[in-house]
Structures are given as structure tokens and as C-alpha cells.
Write a structure and sequence with these properties.
single chain; alpha/beta; six-stranded mixed beta sheet; four-stranded antiparallel beta sheet; 10 helices; 35% helix; binds adenosine-5'-triphosphate
């Protein structure tokens, strides 16, 4: 993982209060370009809310967010996306009847402003074929390119979700629990996949599985009750007394 000197994503004193409850509380986060940054923390620590803030799905109560130095605080999701921040969703939003190839094609169409013209897919399908093939190959789905998404195995659907994020050619890629609900084999396959797609890209991800975090992240931010508890390289963070205490009593999600 090579990080440049540039800061891709920065939050300063970022705060979200839900009816008096501070879900995200004065969070300072800095993600370097080319870095792979994990957000971890016990249930309810504020990880999802922070993701929602970073992508404009939730607007902050106070604090700021910048993307490559540009202030995006309070911008709508599509405005944040236009600045190169793309996210994957833990809950799959795939169209079950469309094939992997068609879904990636649609994602590319959306990105290039052609809109989602379903009734012209035949003609448009050819347009991005080379890029579609590239993306499907990148996530290992070429052999299943023409299978309806509804018939894909769980791990394959999650891989397709990654291809859809990659289709947006993001400058910063946010992955929400890329290995959630997976068995060990799929977890290891996904670690390899994320490692591959993270090369040369900036990634922020949430995951409960410390094996995944340790395998992928060059930096880790541990949240607890909305606040940053510890931030640093994985090797340092995992041995930190405060982190161990925060996780005591937590169910083992690994
Ligand atoms: N829209 C909302 N309204 C009120 N409270 C909310 C809202 N969204 C989140 N919260 C609260 O904010 C806190 C942080 O939630 P969040 O989902 O961000 O945590 P998390 O770290 O992602 O947890 P998990 O690991 O369980 O997904 C929780 O106590 C949650 O109940």
C-alpha cells in the first residue's frame, strides 16, 4: 500500500446528534490517498452513522468534511459522489433478474450520464463492453457474467457489489462490512479481492472481523460511543489496552 502525502478524506470535529444523542461525537479522521483505513468499534459505536455522514446520506450537526481538500460538508449524496466518493451497501440492492454484465453496464451508463435506459439495453450493452469485462474480471465474475444476479451465491453477489462500486471509478471507496455474513472461505476470498482492488485506490471500510481488518488495513480508527478511542496502525491498535477493554463483553463477530 503506497500512500501519497495527500489527504483524501478529512473530518474535523464531525458530530451528529440524533434527538440529543451524540451518535458521532467530534470525530477527527484523516485518510491518506492510497491508504486502506478501517473503522471498527463495538455495536452502536457510530460507524454506520460516520459512513452516512461521509457520503452525504446524513448531514452533520456540526464539524466539517473535506474530500481532497474540497469542503463537502452538508452536500447531498449525488454531489459527494460526483467528487469521487463511492460506497458499497451491506444490504444488497441488486436487481435479481439482471445479469452481472447488465448491472455493471447500467452502473457505467449511470456514471457517464446516459441514464438508466432499460429499454435500450441491447444497443447500449455493446458500448462499454471492454470496461464491463475488465470490471467483472477484476472481481472474478467473468465466468458468471451472464447469470441473473438472483442466482449468484452470496459471496458472488457481494463481489458484484464491489464491481458496481468500481464502475464509478471512485477516488475514495467506502466499503460497508465487505465480509459480513460470510463463511471463512468467502471471507478469505474477499480479503484477496479487496486487497487487489485497493491497490492504487483509497479505501475506507467497516468490518467487525479483526482478521479482515488486520489483513487489509494500514490504519485503523476505533470508535466508541461516537468518539475516536484510538487511531493508528493495526499492530499498535490491536494491543491497546483501551481497545481491548472496549471489546470485552462484546460478542465475537469473527
Ligand atoms: N436515525 C437515527 N435516529 C436515532 N438514533 C440513531 C439513528 N441512527 C443511529 N442512531 C443511534 O446512533 C448510535 C450509533 O449507531 P450506528 O449504527 O452508527 O453504530 P454502528 O457502530 O454502525 O453499530 P453496528 O456495528 O451495530 O452497525 C446507535 O446508538 C444508534 O441507535
Amino acid at each position: 500500500m503506497t500512500t501519497s502525502g495527500r489527504v483524501a478524506l478529512r473530518t474535523q470535529a464531525l458530530t451528529k446528534v440524533f434527538r440529543g444523542f451524540r451518535a458521532v461525537d467530534a470525530v477527527d479522521l484523516e485518510v491518506r490517498e492510497g491508504g486502506v483505513h478501517a473503522l471498527v468499534g463495538p455495536n452502536g459505536a457510530g460507524k454506520t452513522t460516520l459512513f452516512n455522514l461521509l457520503t452525504g446520506f446524513v448531514s452533520p450537526t456540526s464539524g466539517t468534511i473535506t474530500v481532497f481538500g474540497e469542503d463537502v460538508t452538508g452536500k447531498r449524496p449525488e454531489q459527494v459522489a460526483r467528487r469521487g466518493v463511492a460506497r458499497s451497501f451491506q444490504i444488497t440492492s441488486l436487481f435479481e433478474n439482471l445479469t452481472s454484465r447488465e448491472q455493471v453496464e447500467l452502473a457505467l451508463q449511470g456514471r457517464t450520464g446516459q441514464g438508466f435506459r432499460f429499454w435500450r439495453t441491447e444497443k447500449l450493452l455493446g458500448r462499454h463492453r471492454a470496461r464491463v469485462d475488465e470490471l467483472l474480471a477484476e472481481v472474478g465474475l467473468m465466468p458468471l457474467a451472464d447469470k441473473p444476479a438472483g442466482l449468484l451465491a452470496y459471496g458472488q453477489k457481494r463481489a458484484l457489489e464491489l464491481a458496481l462500486v468500481l464502475a464509478l471509478d471512485p477516488r475514495v471507496m467506502l466499503l460497508d462490512e465487505p465480509t459480513a455474513g460470510m463463511g471463512i472461505e468467502d471471507v478469505d476470498r474477499t480479503i484477496e479481492l479487496v486487497r487487489r482492488i485497493a491497490a492504487g485506490r483509497t479505501v475506507v471500510f467497516v468490518d467487525h472481523n479483526m482478521h479482515v481488518v488486520g489483513s487489509l488495513a494500514d490504519r485503523v480508527t476505533v470508535l466508541q460511543q461516537g468518539k475516536v478511542l484510538v487511531e493508528g496502525p493495526y499492530a499498535e491498535v490491536r494491543g491497546d489496552e483501551r481497545v481491548i477493554t472496549a471489546y470485552l463483553g462484546e460478542a465475537d463477530h469473527a
